[in-house]
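Onboarding guide, step 5: your first structure request.
Type a short instruction followed by the sequence, for example:

Predict the 3D structure of this protein.
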Amino acid sequence: MKIKQIGQYCSILPPEFWHTEIRFPDGTCKKVNDTCPVRQCDQGAEYYLNAVPYGPGNSEVDKVVQNGDLLTYLGQPPASFDLNNNPASAILSLLKQRGYHSEAAYIAPSSGKAHQVALWGDSPSDRLFHAGKTGTNKINIYRLDLTSIGVTHEREARLKRELLRWKEVFNRHTFPHGASMNYDPVDFTTVGELADIARVLLRRQPGTLPPIPHVNCVQWTCQTVSLSLVFPLTRAVVKDLGVTEDFERDWLELLGGYADDSLEGIGCLPIQFYTPARLLQKAFDMYMPGVTLSAVLGKHQEGQRFAGTLNQYLRAQGISLDPAILEAYLKQVVYTGDLDVPLNVPGLKVPYQVVMPSTFILEEREYSSKPPSNHPLIRYVATVLPVGETRRI
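The system replies with structure tokens like these:
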């Protein structure tokens, strides 16, 4: 698969990095581009790449990053990936490998330099994009476009600057451990549930651990960006949340005052989370186009296998789920054809949904071909690579 290089630089990585070779149960093989954005042109689907170098002494990424950008770290492709006879569970494993870490990005007002912030331990790691911790990683940059819901560019920019304040509020967390942390459930699925998290964060003193469920890297990124866009810290928003006294006592001076009173949040969640069924279908669309989840789960043995695999991940996160509930959920998905059937798990306050670093790859691809008219869009911006892995065109 040829990749069109756009911009002033091109990648000199081997073409194999951008593809995964899939071996299907019937013995056939296919190379799948599971990292680059795709757009439609006269010749059909075209994969492309906007390569941007980063590293000490290089300023190119500072010209690209904007406040509130979403980062997906790209993992190395397996030499060859065998779906065997268990495609559902195998595809989830592959999806987890290709996008393995997520962060938020912003421009530091004092220096104009690109920074990235996310979880690398008990508190977020906030650092220059060129810092050593970034190392030799390959990172896709995505950007939320709010104009699709009627937000002006000027208001969008002001809302995204709120990330600089909310990251200071959400500066402690509890991190899930283990290889299955990608399946840790999200903690909000509505604006009201996000408001509950905002209240908890603002009612505590700065620097103390908030009494909220643990979050992984992409959950922290999505929560913090969502808080910025939905709840800018204006007097009116803080009052509506019922935390004026807490905010003015503990946060007002630290954050440099209130946000401008004229700034209004977007009133909806900016990033889509997935039910297990929708996650699987998105993965099939990427790696096995034309294959439907209902067709796969219609084979009872495959449904049982996937239920067992997902339940294993859930138990690793301390979530006890009767296999019968999970199997009943999958049967309802097959019967109704509805990928958004809620999975209600005993002990969870909200229906079980997940978000992964690969979510941004999947959402951007869908939006590029079928953009929604009433929801923020996720758009691809660039792929940043170490200086030695690019050359000027």
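Each response can be followed by summary notes, for example: The chain has two domains: 3-273+354-392, 274-352.
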